[in-house]
Amino acid sequence: MKFLITGVAGFIGSHIAEELLKNGEKVIGIDNFYSSSRSNIELLNNLSKDNFVFYAVDIRDFDKLEIIFAEEKPDYVFHLAAVASVQKSIEDPVFSNSVNVLGTLYILELSKKYNIKRVVFSSSAAVYGDEPNLPKNENSKTAPISPYGYEKLIGEYYMNIYNKLYGLETVSLRYFNVYGERQDPSSEYSGVISIFEDRLKRGETANIYGDGLQNRDFVYVKDVAQINILSMLNKNVAGEIFAVGTGKTTTILDLFNIIKNKYNINLEPNFVKARNGDIRESRADNSKIINLLNFDNFTEFKTGILKL
Ligand SMILES: NC(=O)c1ccc[n+]([C@@H]2O[C@H](COP(=O)([O-])OP(=O)(O)OC[C@H]3O[C@@H](n4cnc5c(N)ncnc54)[C@H](O)[C@@H]3O)[C@@H](O)[C@H]2O)c1
Q1: Which residue's C-alpha comes closest to atom 8 of ligand 1?
Q2: Fewest beta carbons less than 10 Å away: which of 166, 183, 210, 272?
Q3: pLDDT tens digits along 223-258
Q4: pTM for the complete prediction?
Q5: Among 19, 221, 7, which residue's Cα sits nearest to residue 107?
């Protein structure tokens, strides 16, 4: 089977590719290195010279994308390429919309035209905004508070409409805060982990925005890769949306202390002004993943942190 992955050079995309290549599958990767470097591509090339093909292409270039679909004839598509930044989408919503909405539509259109068996779309818990009811499941109210959140929600709606109108199988995954190896420290999702790791390891303290009691549902990247593959191959989940989190939360202050203890150092955080648009609390209800995808093997947060 052949899997096309957009955003393959990125954090999560590279882990999905790694898992597939380790299973002997063929992977076609697309990325324009907007928020990643060649290092993940080198890693994937080293994993499999024969089964991995990479194209440096922008997903807004329909003609180049079409050549890849026509020549490579993938069976399945994981769509992760995106401007994955709330802040960037607030600064330049026209740009983020062009990638996150138009680029997504191009991927769907070509998936329809080239009879792709299923598209799994990387959505985000940002679709919920700051809506206070917790935990969030697939039926929770969506109320984005940033262009990014809206763009992901539009992506989900397009997944749904391509499924209903054209019979293209789609699944949307609303990730909470994904963390793990190769995380970009500038990521707004869990980049805080890489930043704390980086600074505390060197004996320096780190900034905490606000009081540090904002909490997040941190989910380990290799679990997210597994959930992507299960969502692609499970016969019964076409058209579904999944909230992808562990159901457990950690405050940013706890996180600081966990990493501080990991390196056995005694430093206090540097509290600075809260950031605009920062969501206070976030937690997934993952019972649909457990029940429909039969995945209940979530890595404990402290275990995941020790693996970094
Ligand atoms: N990391 C998280 O916690 C998290 C949470 C919710 C949703 N997501 C979503 O998951 C997906 C992957 O996120 P990530 O954390 O791996 O981010 P990432 O920035 O590491 O990966 C995104 C990749 O897309 C590529 N890309 C961006 N614009 C492109 C374009 N126009 N053409 C081709 N490639 C392009 C980037 O270069 C990058 O390699 C994104 O869609 C993101 O919105 C991530």
Answers
A1: 124
A2: 272
A3: 999 999 999 999 999 999 999 999 999 999 999 999
A4: 0.96
A5: 7
